[in-house]
Design goal:
single chain, 6-stranded mixed beta sheet, about 35% strand, 3 helices, tt1808, chain A, two-stranded antiparallel sheet, alpha+beta, about 180 residues
Length: about 180
């Protein structure tokens, strides 16, 4: 018996079209990975952060903030971070269907069951791909962690919890009141 081990390429994956309702698709090592839609705490944090970041970025002409946009990490890898930022000088990497280069910032919000993927798999992939900054937000723990690439490795450069007000790279002039990211109980 012969078993096929052909991997899907990033370009083939991008031809699939939009994700079906209720699931999120990514290409990981040539295989389509499926994850469920975000839970309410996750969705709330993303919307609130998008408002804060979007206004700051637009007001200061820094670039663009995107949510749920594919980034091609390699010939067999396409990830869809919860949110990304691309600096104005690098907007040429944003293509018609995906980002074809490392964003300046990737943000992942942990959902039930995604902690190891966000803290290990995506962490390692974004680091290897050269994403300058990576934020991990955990609504259950009410924390944010920020990492910055230094000599090819992520170094933690910021952390906050609960109602802290933080300033994180690449936005040194933006105060983020964390209490606004957490869904009211």
């Amino acid at each position: 018996m012969t078993v096929s081990t052909i991997k899907m390429t990033a370009q083939q994956y991008l031809q699939l079209g939009e994700d079906p309702p209720g699931v999120r698709l990514e290409l990981v090592n040539g295989e389509v990975a499926v994850s469920p839609s975000p839970v309410p705490d996750h969705a709330y944090a993303i919307i609130e952060l998008a408002i804060l970041l979007g206004q700051h970025v637009k007001r200061n002409g820094l670039g663009r903030v995107y949510s749920d946009l594919d980034i091609v990490l390699g010939p067999h890898d396409v990830r869809c971070p919860d949110m990304i930022f691309v600096a104005r000088a690098r907007l040429n990497i944003v293509g018609k269907k995906a980002v074809q280069g490392p964003p300046d910032l990737c943000i992942e919000v942990i959902s039930p069951g995604s902690a190891s993927v966000d803290r290990t798999d995506r962490f390692d992939e974004y680091q290897a791909f050269g994403v300058a900054c990576y934020w991990i937000i955990d609504p259950a723990e009410r924390t944010i962690e920020a990492y910055k690439l230094a000599e090819g490795r992520y170094v933690r450069c910021g952390r906050g919890q609960s109602s802290d007000i933080v300033r994180l790279p690449p936005f040194p002039d933006l105060e983020i009141p964390l209490a606004e990211l957490w869904q009211p109980e």
